[in-house]
Amino acid sequence: MRNIDEFRTLHNEVVEWRHYLHQHPELGYQVHNTARFVAEKLALFGINHIETGVAETGVVAVIQGTNGEGPTIGLRADMDALPIAEESGKQWASSTVGLMHACGHDGHTAMLLGAAKHLAASRNFKGTVVLIFQPAEEDGRGAQKMVQDGLMERYGIDQVYGMHNMPGIDIGTFAIRDGSILAALDEFDVIIKGKGGHAASPHLTIDPVLVGAQIIVGLQSLVSRNTDPTEALVISVTRFNAAHAYNVIPNQVALGGTVRSLSPTLRDFAEHQIKACAEGIANGFGATIDYSHRRLEPLTFNHTEGTRWALEAAYGLVGKNSVNDNTKPLMGSEDFAYMLEARPGAMIFLGNGATAGLHSPSYDFDDEALPYGVGYWVNLVETILAA
Questions:
Q1: In this model, does residue 140 exceed pLDDT 80?
Q2: CA–CA separation, 347 and 336 (whole Å)
Q3: 11: exposed, middle or buried (C-beta count within 10 Å: 0-12, 13-18, 19+)?
Q4: I need a labelling partner for 42 at 20 to 30 A (CA). Which of 28, 187, 219, 262 fits?
């Protein structure tokens, strides 16, 4: 098992890669320059099996160990940025107006490249490592597309692992839990149909604005009064579109929002009860609704054996006192969940220190965290695929 000191020699090089990627952010599946940069680096490391254009712009590379036959494990990093104007003030800030790496995918990509360089040079393991550089984590469900395109079967992947930086956790520390670690994500829309009219004569209308307001209040009771307070469910109404004129009560309004849950039972409950609540309130006012519900990203669920391997790798790198093995689950979502549905494995959080929060225009990945991510990946490989 290797400790952190062995990976500090790569630090300057990984920082250079990370700064380049940060300066050149790309969205969704349009990560053409990023993918080209990744593929060129992998080739320089002496990796012969490199495939580009996976799930449109993903890159997959294979490193074979020199110590005999063994399992195949996948290591995943996401490559895409966000449509946010950067306000970090860093010398390596985004050079593309309106786009930035506000979630640290530049750091994730650079760390997996650092691990690739080390593993390609040493190959001190048995079996196979598959490096997965994924597009479109933020809004295109790139992980789902990779799985649907046959990623796991094509490369014979037995287990798959992910890592995400986490502001607010000290650099040099990790956090993980067995089971549910990130929430499932759904979206819903409610169209409320009433009878419009003049704002001076509301008694002659069926006011859909009033109905919509009542529905918003009613939906909050689904969490506060209809679910176990020890279970996590978040229903957030984030859109409300009504009339454009001050003196008009419209015929209809539209509201929508998100649902985040940490269990399949709660997810099913929310989908059914949001519609029932909205329908009941609307009917009471003489209005009707159209309802739609979209299941987006599933629950990110760490498998027991995968969590055990991840913990062993992190313990070996930084010691048990620097690893939280029962972190609280978060209500954010992550499309790596699709890969964990397809194969066992685990997602771990890497401390990013006291930086701005994820998706903030002031956020920047802390370069001091880079060796820890590189070291975790190498330890994970050499632990699972022990010589």
A1: no
A2: 8
A3: middle
A4: 28
Crossing angle (nearest 10°) for helices 11-23 and 105-122: 140
Residues 154 and 367 sit within 8 Å (Cβ to Cβ): no
Over 70: is that where the pLDDT of 322 sits?
yes
In CATH terms, 184-297 corresponds, of 3.40.50.2300, 3.30.70.360, 3.30.70.890, 3.20.20.70, to 3.30.70.360
The fold adopted by the segment(s) 4-182+299-384 is: Aminopeptidase (3.40.630)
CB 347 within 8 A of CB 332: no
| Cα pseudo-dihedral 149, 151, 152, 155, rounded to 10 | 140
Strands 252-261 and 72-78: unpaired
Averaged confidence pLDDT in the chain? 96
CB 23 within 8 A of CB 92: yes
Closest listed residue to residue 353, CA positions, set 372, 334, 331, 329? 372
DSSP H helices, 46-169, are: 105-122, 142-148, 151-154
Quickly tell me which residue has 């009064």 as its tokens: 225
Return the domain boundaries, the chain: 4-182+299-384, 184-297
Alpha carbon separation from 270 to 14, 225, 230, 261 (Å, rounded): 44, 13, 16, 9
Task: With a cut of 70, say whether residue 387 has pLDDT above it.
Answer: no
> Over 70: is that where the pLDDT of 19 sits?
yes
- pLDDT tens digits for range 236-259: 999 999 999 999 999 999 999 999
Residue 299 has pLDDT above 70, yes or no: yes
3-state secondary structure of 316: helix
- One-letter amino acid at 116 equals A
Q: Quote the tokens at residue 158.
A: 């037995």
Strand partners, 189: 256, 292
Is residue 179 scored above 90 in pLDDT? yes
- Map residue 12 onto helix, strand or coil: helix
